[in-house]
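Shipment paperwork, digital attachment
Item: protein structure file
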Amino acid sequence: MHHDSPCHRPDAVAHINVIAHRLDQVYGSRRWRPHLRPLDELVMTVLSQHTSDVNTERAFQSLRASFPTWEAVRVAPTSAVADAVRTGGLADRKAPRIQAILNDILAERGVLDLDHLVDLPLAAARDWLLQLNGVGPKTAACVLLFSLGRPALPVDTHVHRVAKRLGLIGSAVGAEAAHALLEADLGADRDRVYAFHVNMIAHGRAVCTARRPFCERCPLKDCCAFYAHVATPSPTSPPLPPDGS
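Attachment content:
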């Protein structure tokens, strides 16, 4: 199917530029704002795996209420840490992972904080995080972007799925490899990377859903590889959210 649009067979940067702009128009142009301190953000990201934002926040607040310091979390019985984060799901896996990360940080730094990352170049800060036990590219990118305001793109399941359907990355590119590819195309503007991350998730939840995307109401369908080659519109679907929502 041929489309006469700015997205027809673009190079990667032009393609992502158009998509980022359209997402801003639909979901709002978002600017980065400070989140948690780096170590808090790291623990929060571990807790967020395979659960909702509400459950993540509940588990994190429970953990902080149960233990006065990260050192107390580190030396506590793993079962007690698991009990504290039970509301976040997979507590018996997440508790030992959090404690292993805290042990690694203490062994490397001598203190339980990640404030030194502020002064490191982006690549060095990423490499430092990735050498921690159980920290992968997505978790590292969350800390770098949300806490430190670095232009690192977390690629979660929504970002990965939507990026593949749009043709921003190849269909065989895994989530880990997608981080470097998408970051390179987006560039080094912190606000742009942050907006793209948040808006791709919003689009993945509202329109480009996993089982059956609502292509007929998608503002990106004229520059979407999936729509051009696979999808057929269905007659009914919920309306698109208003601009800026």
